[in-house]
Amino acid sequence: MDQINAIGRRKAAIARVYMKEGSGKITINKRDIAVYFPSSILRFIVKQPLEKLEVVDKYDININLRGGGFKGQSEAARLGIARALIKVNPEDKAVLRAAGFVTRDPRVVERKKPGQPKARKRFQFSKR
């Protein structure tokens, strides 16, 4: 198996995932996953599709992450990994979809409206 490419997006984050057979090393922006995501919860989110299919130690994954915050980046990486795993073995798609790893979460920040301090917040109304 040669290198497999996939892309994952969430909020403003974009993850380009490059996967090849190996020992289970995950590198994000040329840094180890433990260095890039000090939080164990975010590392868990990234590894969820691999753990679901029990292939944590089977692939070396290199991820380029841009934009967004920690949470969006981790979920973008999760989607990218899930898509790469589906390219490797299309029969796994049903399992990953049932776990909710294949669907792109469409929720993004709502834009700020003119004449308001935020997207939905209004300035205090004064009758007189």
Automatic annotation (TrEMBL):
Q: Does the keyword Ribosomal protein apply?
A: yes
**Gene name on record?**
rpsI
Q: Does the keyword Metal-binding apply?
A: no
**Amino acid composition bias (Basic residues), ranges on this chain:** 114-128
Please provide, alphabetically and separated by semicolons, the GO molecular function terms listed in this UniProt record.
RNA binding; structural constituent of ribosome
SUPFAM superfamilies named in the record: Ribosomal protein S5 domain 2-like (SSF54211)
According to UniProt, the name of this protein is Small ribosomal subunit protein uS9
Region of interest (Disordered), ranges: 107-128
- UniProt keyword list: Ribonucleoprotein, Ribosomal protein
Record family assignment: Belongs to the universal ribosomal protein uS9 family.
InterPro entries found in the cross-reference section? Ribosomal_Su5_D2-typ_SF, Ribosomal_uS9, Ribosomal_uS9_bac/plastid, Ribosomal_uS9_CS, Ribsml_uS5_D2-typ_fold_subgr
GO annotations of cellular component type: cytosolic small ribosomal subunit
What is one process in the GO biological process aspect for this record? translation
